[in-house]
Specification:
single chain; alpha+beta; Alpha-Beta Plaits; 6-stranded mixed sheet; two-stranded antiparallel sheet; 3 helices; 8 strands
Length: 154
């Protein structure tokens, strides 16, 4: 059994989202070495802790997962140069698409149905979102998901 739980969570959530997001949005696990192409969503699992401090260590970990939705700060234009969608609207559409697949009752069941190796989820729920920020030439909006997961043999 691998205790690379954070990487397994990244991989599982990315595998869940990839076939669901629409348009040209790409989805990456946080541990990828691929060069990012935009628009995209990057799944990164942060620090974990025991699910129940009173019960002692049992392998079930609470992790905060950060899904960064990123689009280039550039309007979408038609062939004549007229703006079809502003950069902010592109971010809103992309984030809405990703959020729509995460904001569901029993997200953990959908994640487990992907059957990604090395992880099983007992809880997964969206907790917070952020206002968009600009970093360089990117609009970035964060969706945070809290998961309780444990490593598995497969």
């Amino acid at each position: 059994m691998s205790w690379n739980l954070e990487q397994s969570i990244d991989t599982a959530i990315a595998a869940y989202l990839k076939p669901l997001v629409t348009g040209d949005t790409r989805v990456y696990a946080g541990n990828t070495k691929d060069e990012l192409q935009y628009p995209c969503a990057v799944v990164h699992t942060g620090e974990g802790e025991n699910q129940d401090e009173d019960a002692g260590f049992n392998g079930h970990r609470i992790n905060q997962v950060h899904i960064l939705v990123m689009v280039e700060v550039a309007d979408e234009k038609d062939d004549e140069g007229a703006v079809i969608r502003s950069a902010l609207q592109r971010l809103s559409d992309t984030r809405g698409d990703v959020m729509g697949h995460l904001a569901k009752l029993r997200l953990e069941t959908a994640l487990n149905d992907v059957d990604s190796p090395g992880v099983k989820f007992s809880l997964a729920q969206v907790t917070t979102t952020s206002d968009p920020v600009i970093e360089g030439r990117l609009f970035i909006a964060e969706i945070n998901v809290e998961v309780i997961a444990n490593p598995t043999e497969n």
